[in-house]
Amino acid sequence: MTTVIKMENIRKIYDNGFLANDNINFSLNSGEIHAIAGENGAGKSTLMKLLYGVETPTSGKIYVRDKEVKINSPSESMKLGIGMVFQHFMLVDELTVLENIFLGMEKAKFNILQKEEMRTTLIELCDKFNMHVDFDTKCGDLSVSQKQKVEILKVLAKNATVLIFDEPTAVLTAPESDELFTQLKLLREAGHTIVLITHKLNEIKALCDRVTVLRKGKYVGTYDVKDVTIDEISRLMVGFDVTLTPTKKEHVTQDEVLLELKDVSFLDGGDAAKKVSFNIKLGEIVCLTGVEGSGQEKVVAAVMGNNHKFEGDVIFNGIKINNRSIAERRKLGISYIPADRMGEGANLKTSILENISAHNISKAPVKHLGFFNTRKLYKNSRVLQADYRIATTDMKEPINLLSGGNIQKVVTARELETNPILLVAEHPTRGVDVGTMELIFQKMNDLRELGNSILLVSTDWNEMIALADRIIIFYDGEITAIIDDPHTIDEYELGYYMLGVKKMEGLS
Asked: Euclidean distance between the first and final Cα of the chain, in Å?
């Protein structure tokens, strides 16, 4: 089999001295689907950013089709036939699908845009790889899975033969993931080579030919997927055995209602006529799920005080909190892990210490004679660092030097260690490795065992099964199903409710 990409002794050292890749070797065979797996901070994304030209290696060599190359930008990478589909889409919402795909490479004659020629090219691509989407729709109006198709078509339209995917199923339902898998297999059959960065080990087994495992910036090995089990891959990634379905202790949810939404309707986005009502009892984990934009995000905003544009009542612990500020809600015992860990969850301009200690800075135990007791703050932060396995040697270094998964650990540690009466957690394990996932599952179940409650927002089936006592499914701004026992439903039936294909009887 022909080797299309070879990376030899790749080292990447950042300006602060952090060693992200330590003499890594990686090869990619033509026509394969090759997974890159590893815990957060293992160097997976860094290695692929070096291949795509987003960053440059400190040392080492890259060969494309047996020729040594220097890749200093994504445009140079694309000229070599290498494209990348990022987890966070890079589309212009105000432009149509056609305009986004050909942005920067429009076909024109005598300064006249050749739209029909571009449309013909796009039709051929869509038919070849079964990726059909309305060319004239603005990208801002597309679903998440449709936006992903546009990103893939953008890369294919630039004649990429090597495609790198970063966590491509992170926001997809089970049926949408299956559709993507079908499309990736069609690409492989057509001779394309695919790299898959993923934490979902079942996807590696279902889809990939080989897997390369990295740990702490070092190369562990490359394996034929057929020769290794899921448990063996997870052990290679983190260095110890992982249990992703922790056994819940015998637990009886209390009858007392902690949080209640009564006939809540939102005044923006055309959902004013749709009323949402549900409650969460003490000691209960309730999961809200649905495709992105189905209404669960608005519910969270109403509970946390980020959105006051609604009618109806939000009642917490017997108190109506509609007009309470975010700070007041936190004082009542509500903590929040936001979906956007970079934008909302962390202040990227400050240190890890300042981020993880944010809720403790104003508390008396860490003050002395009117001054902050930074020594005690630092000591407390080191305890949390060890407990949550945050990959850093210095809690005083800038948080933006951490990987996304390690930033998620910082946010989770900060919010859970306040011992909240209600934890609101949006996608708490999205993009984290299996070891971190197990840790977060256990911490959240421990909180539940104390009699506290969790409002979970998730689209991850494993996360729901590991945590939720009930699942509430949203579609188009309203509840389509309430699942009182998550073990009575599979991920495909869940996906049909999320996509609006099914609706439970008896719901208004």
From this structure: 58
192: its two tokens: 């394309």
CATH of 3-238, one of 3.40.190.170, 3.40.50.300, 3.40.50.10490, 3.40.630.30: 3.40.50.300
What is the SS3 assignment for 342?
helix
CA contacts within 13 A on the Cβ side of 421: 15
Query: Left, alpha or beta for 66 (phi > 0: left; psi -120 to 50: alpha)?
Result: left
Burial 38-53 (b: 16+ CB within 10 A, else e): bbbbbbbbbbbbbbbb
For 226-323, list the strands marked E by DSSP. Answer: 257-266, 276-281, 285-289, 310-316, 319-320
* Residue extent(s) of CATH 3.40.50.300 domains in the chain: 3-238, 246-333+421-508
β-sheet bridge partners, residue 63: 6, 68
Tell me what pLDDT residue 234 has: 86
Distances (CA, A) of 39 to 46, 226, 295, 342: 13, 21, 32, 19
Q: Can you tell me the distance from the alpha carbon of 56 to that of 11, in angstroms, rounded to the nearest whole number?
A: 10
More confident residue, 107 or 486: 486
* Three-state DSSP class for residue 285: strand
Residue 265: helix, strand or coil by DSSP? strand
DSSP string, 375-415: HHHHHHHHHHHHHHT---S-TTSBGGGS-HHHHHHHHHHHH
pLDDT at 104: 74
Give me the architecture of the 246-333+421-508 domain, per CATH. 3-Layer(aba) Sandwich (3.40)
* CA 33 – CA 177 distance, rounded (Å): 16
Say if CB 361 and CB 377 are below 8 A apart. yes
Q: Is 287 exposed, middle or buried (0-12, 13-18, 19+ CB in 10 A)?
A: buried
pLDDT, tens digit, 9 for 90 and up, residues 204-214? 999 999 999 99
Question: Which run of H or E residues covers position 6?
Answer: strand 3-13
Q: How far apart are CA 297 and CA 137, in angstroms?
A: 24
- Rounded to 10 deg, the angle between the 174-189 and 144-157 helix axes is 10
Distance CA 91, CA 100 (A): 6
Helices (H) and strands (E) counted in the chain, each on its own, are 16, 24
Burial class (CB in 10 A: 0-12, 13-18, 19+), 79: middle
Contact by Cβ (8 Å): 468, 486: yes
Task: State the Cα–Cα distance between residues 433 and 238, nearest whole angstrom.
Answer: 8
Residue of 295, 219, 212 lying closest to 472 (CA atoms): 295
Each residue's pLDDT tens digit, 420-447: 999 999 999 887 777 788 888 989 999 9
